[in-house]
């Protein structure tokens, strides 16, 4: 091979080698994902291993950077106070590809300003109601998780993964609740959590609503059998009892034939009918009605007054005693003679 041809061959080989080594985009961002609270500082490095660098820098709505003849460029913000920064690292080269751009995976977040519960004044047993979690001024929504708890039991969870809004938003999340009798006075709480993923703070930013105790209303339910049969001896005393559970607390009404020796007393949620010196006039059915605005429960107590010692027996017994005494006294006098 001629010397001139050899030089051309070597030159082409060198050119092709240099082109091959520079024909790739080599942009390295560190850290590759940044999670930063709104208003906090942030520092991110960007670099390349290629040698044919013309300039490097950052495109951003805050603190843009342009550094000629540098393989490293730093985006440094002392206080990130914009939501649409969208920083991109760019590197311009002398050879193809002439420019390479890499967008920073940046998450700017703000914990909720407040979390509260919106609920009806009361719930009715077996009827679906809605308890709403209200989350104010939180960002970004796509990382937000809203949960409703009854005590330590989670009742529901709502996320917003398809919401691309970067700016702070307000979210109202309704949760259906169908209460039981046991839920009366239960404590409900709403928890808003930002699940920010890799690079985010640990534990996740979380805000909890003040607890809310919810009354559950229901009609009265008897705490004892609805039918009872009781007995008392004539002249004896007896107390008939009636009690029920309800919300609001039930009021009691007794129905029976009026008698002078009957007294009604209601105390500590129990209503009683007190009957001293029972007689046949008290022998009847006593109806107890426990009422509130949502219903009534009825209890029937049948009282039987059993007769005492018959008067004829008492008279005969007295006569017998008198005769016995007379005989004894007469015998003593006879012996004395």
From TrEMBL:
<dbReference type="InterPro" id="IPR003599">
    <property type="entry name" value="Ig_sub"/>
</dbReference>
<dbReference type="Pfam" id="PF03921">
    <property type="entry name" value="ICAM_N"/>
</dbReference>
<protein>
    <submittedName>
        <fullName>Vascular cell adhesion protein 1-like isoform X4</fullName>
    </submittedName>
</protein>
<dbReference type="InterPro" id="IPR003598">
    <property type="entry name" value="Ig_sub2"/>
</dbReference>
<feature type="signal peptide">
    <location>
        <begin position="1"/>
        <end position="22"/>
    </location>
</feature>
<keyword id="KW-0812">Transmembrane</keyword>
<dbReference type="Pfam" id="PF13927">
    <property type="entry name" value="Ig_3"/>
</dbReference>
<feature type="transmembrane region" description="Helical">
    <location>
        <begin position="311"/>
        <end position="332"/>
    </location>
</feature>
<keyword id="KW-0732">Signal</keyword>
<keyword id="KW-1133">Transmembrane helix</keyword>
<dbReference type="InterPro" id="IPR003987">
    <property type="entry name" value="ICAM_VCAM_N"/>
</dbReference>
<dbReference type="InterPro" id="IPR013768">
    <property type="entry name" value="ICAM_N"/>
</dbReference>
<dbReference type="InterPro" id="IPR013783">
    <property type="entry name" value="Ig-like_fold"/>
</dbReference>
<dbReference type="InterPro" id="IPR036179">
    <property type="entry name" value="Ig-like_dom_sf"/>
</dbReference>
<keyword id="KW-0130">Cell adhesion</keyword>
<keyword id="KW-0677">Repeat</keyword>
<comment type="similarity">
    <text>Belongs to the immunoglobulin superfamily. ICAM family.</text>
</comment>
<dbReference type="InterPro" id="IPR007110">
    <property type="entry name" value="Ig-like_dom"/>
</dbReference>
<dbReference type="InterPro" id="IPR047012">
    <property type="entry name" value="ICAM_VCAM"/>
</dbReference>
<dbReference type="GO" id="GO:0098609">
    <property type="term" value="P:cell-cell adhesion"/>
</dbReference>
<keyword id="KW-0325">Glycoprotein</keyword>
<keyword id="KW-1015">Disulfide bond</keyword>
<keyword id="KW-0472">Membrane</keyword>
<feature type="domain" description="Ig-like">
    <location>
        <begin position="220"/>
        <end position="304"/>
    </location>
</feature>
<dbReference type="GO" id="GO:0005178">
    <property type="term" value="F:integrin binding"/>
</dbReference>
<keyword id="KW-0393">Immunoglobulin domain</keyword>
<dbReference type="GO" id="GO:0016020">
    <property type="term" value="C:membrane"/>
</dbReference>
